[in-house]
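Margin note from the TA: students keep mixing up input and output lines. Inputs are the sequences; the output is the structure of the whole complex. Example:
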Amino acid sequence: MTAAPAVAPAAPLVLRGVRHSYGEAEVLHGIDLTLRGGEAVALLGPSGSGKTTLLAVAGGLLRPTSGEVTVLGTPLTGRRDEAARRVAYVLQAGSLIPYLTVEENLLVRRVVTGRRPTPADRAEARCLLEAVDLAAKAGRYPDRLSGGERQRACVAQALFTRAPVLLADEPTASLDRARGRAVTELLTAHARDTGAAVLLATHDERALDLTDRTVSIEDGLLRDGY
Amino acid sequence: MSGREGFAVWFLAWREIRHGRVRFGLTAALVGLVAFLVFMLTGLAVGLGDAGVSGLRRLPGAVVVYSAGAERVLSRSALPAADAARIAAVPGVTAVRPLGQTMAQAKGPNGAFPVALTGTDGAADGIVLDRTLTPEAGIGQTVTLQPGGVRVRVAGFADLGSVQHTAVARVPLPVWRRTQPAHPATGVYLVDTDRDPAATAAAITGAVAGTEAVTRRAAIDAVPGYAAETGTIAMIRGFLLAVSALLVGTVFWIFTMQKEASLAVLRATGARARLLVGSYLLQVAVTTVLGVAAGFAVVLGAGAAMPAGAFSLPGSAAALSAALLAALALAASAASLHRLLTVDPLLSLGRNA
Ligand SMILES: Nc1ncnc2c1ncn2[C@@H]1O[C@H](COP(=O)(O)OP(=O)(O)OP(=O)(O)O)[C@@H](O)[C@H]1O
Ligand SMILES: [Mg+2]
């Protein structure tokens, strides 16, 4: 993807010439990608093609071997707390803290940034849990949730961070068709409503009609469509 | 750490304790158990020390002069009157007081009882008994001292302490002398000095033939059984302190390893490493303080049930033990800090395939 220079500096997420290698093996061979505000983009690719790697680089969890990642025009630094404030992440492996209830798992995303949860924060968390159909389980611990419920809780967590960029690594993998669609809709609506940029890695081609556009990764390179 | 982060530290620490109350509770209980033993031994050490030497601690003098060959045993020492002037002539000596101390049997109206009979110059007429001997005789009654069969009137009671677990009874030196078969002038001399006590002691030993002078501290250590008793207890207490430190260090090391995944998630989602460290240290502190407090509460109950004199836990000794327990626990828990500081947020990707 070549970014239009006029948009690029202020775009929520811009990757330029991003390469990444694990040791000798290069997984990303130079990725260019620009996400505009309010846009939800699907990232397709077979297993092992580098979706998680790309998201990890875009979220600042991995440093690119070369190339650059900028969020709203500023490069991501090595500081985790900085990067996490700017890029929210639905981790493929889940991100629920076992000793926090579902609701507290949302609140903790703001707590770690030094914020004391207000009643408004709690109301917002409840509202998000409502949206992912987990309101009734807000007080449960993660080990009492099904796999799909955990995944929806993780999505709610990411939405709760209010970051301008949201990366979701296969957030619908263990959901049934209807719930998968609902979650994807929630993410695209989030982009539309808050102006955030959403990048959604998925195997699930059924959800593509919900996103604004699709990019695919294969052999370490990105191309439009699939 | 900023006040804002303080909330996050508390939030993470407390929620985890609440969720894992059984394991944190068990850890605190274990710490409490060890703390109980540490307090118990501290109390016993103080109690034994008191019973062994408190009677000596209350005597004046920085240096004790024994007869050579007495092996620093008060009851074996016998010195002639002429030595007083020789000792007084040693540079640095400012006062010389004779003191006789031997174990004796006293027979009062309620039967016989042992005393650490102490003869001093200028003591009041009659016999003054340590307060713990109140049940044995009343003021004005007569007790008979063996050996010697010396009869003395009870002049009063005072906090005289005890020596070798035997309550002190004080009489004028001539009375003490009559209980001694050889009637020596005195047992030992207690010496005041305006110089370093060790140096003065050495000077006396060198200047006055047939004497061995030591500092008061060395004299106390030389009381038969005292060093062995307190040394053994100090050793066990040291081991227990080490056990408690290792316990806390190991338990929290395991806790930290077990939750590495969620630590990585917290790091990945924006928690600073120092937040994790703060929350960890808070958990260690809460667990240790609760454990030590519980141990202390139990020891107070147990101490009350112990025979008087055998157990004594003054506030300062208790505070020192508690501080040692807490400090060692915190020090041992530092072993996990490196892990916390270097948690890799990448682990949160959880790619184990
Ligand atoms: N830590 C690592 N060390 C070495 N190679 C790795 C490491 N992590 C991933 N890889 C390799 O990089 C490639 C891309 O992995 P990645 O996890 O990004 O794929 P993916 O598209 O997310 O796959 P999936 O759809 O199965 O989640 C794979 O070939 C994988 O084996
Ligand atoms: Mg993946």
